[in-house]
Amino acid sequence: MKKFFILPLIVLLFAGCVSVQNISDDQQKMAKEQAMGEAMLEAFKKQNYDGYIQFIPPGGRQAYNKEKFQTDLREIASRMGKIDSFRFLTRLEKEPLHELVWAVRFQSYSLKGEKIFKETIFSIVVGEVDGVRRVFLFGFK
Asked: Per residue in 3-38, is it b (16+ CB within 10 Å) or e — as a string?
């Protein structure tokens, strides 16, 4: 009788360990993807082109060149102001890709010279190529 009780208990213990490992792998992947997006936002804030495109595959770097980056900096600054802060919102599953979304807070000034804040969305779409996490789509919405 005791054997019937102990065997299922052992099976449950080992099954639990496997699922914890899978969750841990997924959490590590998510943390890495989140760090990638935050590095891009910091680079955009500092107007650092090389930092901004560091996770983009080489083909994408040809399409999104330094001139396009400078244009985006000017357009966003004129509409929104300068990045004040950002906060991670969520990770959307689009297997085999993930879309990560941040709320980005900008600071600017009213016509009266008063400090004002505006928020918009920044998102990246991340996938894996040859075992390396890469950003395939990105931008402010």
From this structure: eeeeeeeeeeeeeeeeeeeeeeeeeeeeeebbebbb
